[in-house]
Design a protein that fits this description.
The chain is mainly beta and 766 residues long. Helices cover 4% and strands 57% of the residues. Strand 12 and strand 13 form a beta hairpin.
Amino acid sequence: MRRCNFSIPALLGGISIAALAASPAFAQPVEPLAAAQEGVSDIIVTAQKRSENAQNVAVAITALSTEDIAASGVTSTEDLRAAVPSLNVTTAAGGFGLPRIRGVGATGQGAGIENPVAVYVDGVYYGSAIGALQSLFDVEQVAVLKGPQGTLFGRNATGGLIQITTRKPSYDYTASARFGYGNYDTASAAAYVSGGLAPTLAFSLAAQYENRGDGYGQNVFTGNDIQTDRTYSLRAKLLWEPGDTTSIVLSGDYFGREAADPAFVTFSRNSAGQYVPDVIESLGGDPQRDIYADIDPTLRGRQKGISLSIDQELGGVNLRSITAYRKTALRTYFDPDGTVAPRLRIDNNNRDKQFTQEIDLISDNDGPFNWVIGGFYMKSSAGQYPGRTTGLTTFGGNGYSDDFTDIGLESIAGFADGTYELGANTKITAGIRYTYDKRDIDATRITYNGNTGVTTTTIFGPDKRNFDKLTWRLSIDHRFSPELMAYASYNRGFRSGTFVPQIATPFNVLEPEVVDAYELGIKTDLFDRKVRLNVAGYYYDQSAVQVIQVIAGVNNVYNARQGARIYGVDADLTWQVSDNLRLFGGFNWTDARYRDFTDAIISIPYPVAAYFSPSNYSYVDSQTGQTVANTACLGTFGAPTAQLGGNCLLRGDASGNRLQNTPEITFSLGGSLDIPTSAGVFTLAGNYYYNDGFVATADERVTQPSYNTVDASITWKEPGEKFYVRLWGKNLTDAFYRSQISATNSGDNGYAGAPRTYGVTFGFDY
């Protein structure tokens, strides 16, 4: 267990001293260097609901343009971890995205459980974890805001947010398309077209399709491929500008996915006592990528939504309204037990519907005081329809158990945020938000016993619970010179509570998380704007961390009531070496550990000794403070001493252990080089990413080791720069890593990340 000996005040103070020593303060107003000068381009973001130079915003931001995304090899939100080291994106059950920033994130998913790293697309909040996995084809910019965003983006953004901006319709006709083919029999196509329909009306249409015909692995029992994947998406926009002061955008999107997932592979002894990697190898398979299961996994996902955005200038104030409706569905059918006996089969049908309405009044940046006030309303319903369990553990394989759950949310929030110039070069920003959530739940369990022919229906609930919180932010920044700005901030974020989406009597409640975040940072443009270096040091006090554990194939979520403490440093670097050569990179070091976590779920591998008894293991109940002896292994069917493999899950002490899915060190370095020739421009691009690994369980027993990935491409553009050909490769070293890893009753298992992939893409831009 690695620990650091220096203090947080010294860490943050060092950054502050470096900022003060870098340049003397000026009495006259100091403006940042103009974007027109040679060097690194300015990046305009809407991190504070208004368009601003990212170098002037007192928030740690990594913003990627279309060119940055291409050079980094990023094609989806899951790939963003390679370009934003403080962000780690893992997946759950193959179809749920679990982003985590600086240690704050989710270890799993469930109906009504929103991620503390919020995802916004064109200002629309995507509450479902299914929506966190996005393709980035028609994207204009991706901005990752680090740390709690408790005022302007208060919907559970305790870790930060991923802000995706797609291309806006143009009155000038423009079109682009690309067609590609890669290994694993992967065919892809994408197209975008936009243009004017009338003097005040424009449209855009984007479509994308990808089909991976060969899987990354195989089910060695059935002989069929796993991790095949087919996705398709469509986005349409209509822009109407009836006057110079009015802009209205109607947008609709649809996404579909069909895959042989989730492909969990057990890499320990399964419940039949078999060491699964040896079994797979004996059958001619690859124990890292092949699975051993009695059925092939199935995933079918759908997302669709519609939004209406209105921007209206009102004489010095801008009124913005964003109205949106989204619906997602995800079915996952898989065998989680790591054997080829039909012991346990899970067929989950997840559904999520949400309506959101946000209204903002935004000042026009004219004068020393600029502000935003607004309100946010959300109504959603999420649940299982149904979650079905079958197999030998359910009526001896002759029946089923269906769980229907529905968790409702009605939320309303009001917020205000303002920035005031204190003198020529200093600004202070303060914001506040009040959130009030009403949660409700009802559930029904329908069981069918095929041995007796009896169907039993049991109704649970309904139940209700309200959560509310006041959150805020306070920051001060000072521009010491055109090249240097320093800031200090204190932010409070709130992740609302909810009901645990598993049936129980009474229903279990997840208490809210609160994150108090302290940050010092500098933003610099050095050496005539050739080098941009932004560095931030942070310390978080996080309460009531929400933790997930799979028990008997079902996700169970509970609180680490005493929370966690997190501190670290991250940095982003861009170096415009010459007109044709640009280097970029990032670094993050995070130490994230639970405080007193005396009733964590820990795992003990089977088989156990004949004298083993769960009652020999005790824990301290964090709610009552009482010492309690375990009475049984959670989710185990039969006596513990009779189990041949898998894990005994018990309550135990994980105090001081690392938070799951949080690498201590991540690092990336990339670049792009343009080589002009008479035959056109050749562009060499590449990105290296290092992840020093992370723990998967609260007891730190199951881990993902460190790994490195290398992505690269070479692109030729003909002299007119309309047509291009790109040869590309991702994970060229064929590094093996798991994007999900856990310890369950059935054993230690995981979900493999993508192997080496490569291909060619033909495209044009007109």
